[in-house]
Write a structure and sequence with these properties.
308 residues; alpha/beta; 2 domains; 6-stranded mixed sheet
């Protein structure tokens, strides 16, 4: 067999070049992983407004922008055709997009670092029913995305509800969809088996609920409890504490799904403390407030819960 040293040298140089490029990409990701104001504000328990974007569609002609999602809860799933976990999560994302379409939730798959033809082949292979766009404008950097898959849930005002790194499934994502729907002015039906402080939602049907989530050493938690308990005559008020004893609150039983935190906290999509949720007598989440809302906002949430 003839020897071709120049060919071998060229191939070796290409391999080394590819390796160096991958090392550079990894270094860039490490350097920028903790340098994104939007993502970091969400990690700190705030509800930041998502970056604006306009991207070309993969599935149809035209574009999709953040503005076009206004008024709707939305799921932005960052993915790529070469990503095995993206294929793993596809069935649950497909099913949720169909299930929540009637609730006005918009799913958008944001393909990045990918060939358009490969992305379209992936969508066809997995029968993706929701809108797909291709990121050619650095949107994933604006969102602080470092590698697929990553998912953001936004409410109807464009503010973030949660950021999930890694693949999602229905039990993980669905609670945050309900929070986004409630924050968008909708009413999200809850599973009657949803754990509520050691009981189940089904045992509390017919009664408006106001659920306060607090933790020890939380500056605003005491004030939130006062505002919630002042409305006991208008709703059943349940106060749950996480990570320690809080006067006036019962302990939220531990979550058993392996995600940590409290069972009710996880089941209802609470990501930061304090938080206040309102559930109407039909078992629908109608308000999801974070931080210390004004007393008038709390009263409005109770009125929504009592209007069913």
């Amino acid at each position: 067999m003839p020897d071709h040293p120049p060919v071998r040298r060229a191939l070796s140089a290409s391999a080394i070049g590819l390796l160096l490029a991958l090392v550079a990409l990894f270094a860039w990701q490490l350097a920028n992983r903790d340098n994104n104001a939007f993502r970091d504000a969400l990690r700190a328990g705030k509800t930041p407004e998502a970056p604006a974007f306009t991207l070309p569609r993969l599935d149809h002609a035209g574009t999709i922008s953040r503005q076009s999602l206004a008024g709707h809860a939305a799921v932005l799933n960052f993915w790529a055709s070469w990503c095995p976990p993206c294929a793993d999560e596809a069935p649950d994302l497909n099913a949720l997009s169909i299930r929540y379409e009637a609730q006005g939730v918009r799913f958008v798959g944001v393909d990045f670092n990918d060939a358009v033809d490969e992305a379209r082949a992936f969508a066809k292979r997995h029968d993706v029913p929701y809108a797909l766009v291709h990121d050619t404008r650095g949107v994933r950097q604006a969102f602080g995305v470092t590698g697929p898959p990553e998912t953001y849930v936004l409410d109807g005002t464009g503010h973030a509800v949660v950021h999930i790194e890694g693949p999602v499934d229905a039990p993980l994502l669905e609670p945050y969809l309900r929070v986004a729907i409630a924050r968008s002015g909708g009413a999200a039906p809850l599973d009657p088996a949803t754990p509520i402080g050691g009981g189940k939602l089904s045992s509390m049907s017919g009664t408006p609920l106001l659920i306060a989530f607090v933790t020890p050493n939380c500056g605003d938690c005491g004030a939130l409890l006062q505002r919630a308990t002042a409305l006991r005559g208008h709703a059943r008020v349940i106060a749950l504490s996480e990570s320690g004893v809080v006067q006036g609150a019962a302990a939220d039983p531990p979550d058993t799904t392996g995600r940590g935190g409290g069972a009710t906290q996880r089941a209802l999509g609470v990501t930061a403390f304090p938080a206040l949720l309102a559930i109407d007598g039909r078992g629908r989440l109608v308000a999801a407030l974070s931080g210390l809302p004004a007393a008038a906002t709390v009263r409005a949430a109770v009125r929504r819960a009592g209007a069913a």
